[in-house]
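General statements about sequence and structure are easier to judge against a single worked case. When preparing material for the folding task, we compiled for one chain both its residues and its backbone structure tokens. The amino acid sequence and the backbone structure tokens for this protein are reproduced below:
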Amino acid sequence: MKLAEETIPSGEAQVIEDLVARLQAKITRDNAGGPMRRDAHPKMHGLVKAEFIVEPGLPPELRVGVFAEPRSYPAWIRFSNQDGSLNPDKGRDIRGMAIKLMGVPGDKLLDEERDAPTQDFILISTPVFVTRDAAEFDALLASLTGSGWAKLVFFLTHWRVTWNLLRSMVRFANPLQIRYFSTTPYLFGNTAVKYSAMPHVSVPDRIPDRPDDDYLRLAMRQQLTVGEARFDFAVQLQVDAQAMPIEDPGHEWSQALSPFRKVASIVIPAQAFDTEAQRELGENLSFTPWHALPAHRPLGGVNRARRVVYAAISKYRHACNQQPRREPQGWDG
């Protein structure tokens, strides 16, 4: 087995079709009579302006794609809860950080958006994906939308999924103070990488004793009223194809074997982000790991499923809401 090598199982295309149908039915049912929302990460804490600053003096093996030269990209970053329902923030959940760089030259992977000037990085607050592949995720989703007996049988027969899910569901005080991970791998030169965004935190916030239903948005607003937020953006190189598998994002890559290495800084300046216009923009933006340069091509079955699922759900959601789908050119449009 070679570094960055994919192995596509038989029947995967049918599994992905089933996922699209299942998720589309779910959001149709969950959003009856209201705006059509995302199937995951529908609750947004805030969409913020940021600068993504590539480090100068990177070694040759890290100068790939958007990291090839030291420069700064304007970016939108959307912070969210993973749960498909709009629940109070005090519940345990996976949190999301979706980064959209703008002003990125070069042809992109998606035919419909080949000329789009954007590059997305999709991160969540856990180092592992809950399932090993698209088929297992489809089975998980089927159990969660099924009977109580279906849920019990699935979780009793999928111990690692149960463990990954339990360890991922955490309470946090502030989305700007969480470490985020890609969980899935991406092409990077002659190998693959996983991504991580690591916050700079001097004095961490505490979860309020009596938290507001939207206290994570309020925590972001408080921090960005008085100052900035910063993250280090880092890559973890695949150095062992067996110990660091491409097709199983439910398996964590060892940081002892290959530590994360900083390639960029994210600076979120002080700002008033909690406006109606910015909330509307955050709802209408589409994020996918396939908004990418070929140098950063998503790898593995979960990412192959995302290519189809994310596009189908985005098109369906925007059509239902009568909103155009477009990639931003910059902060002003």
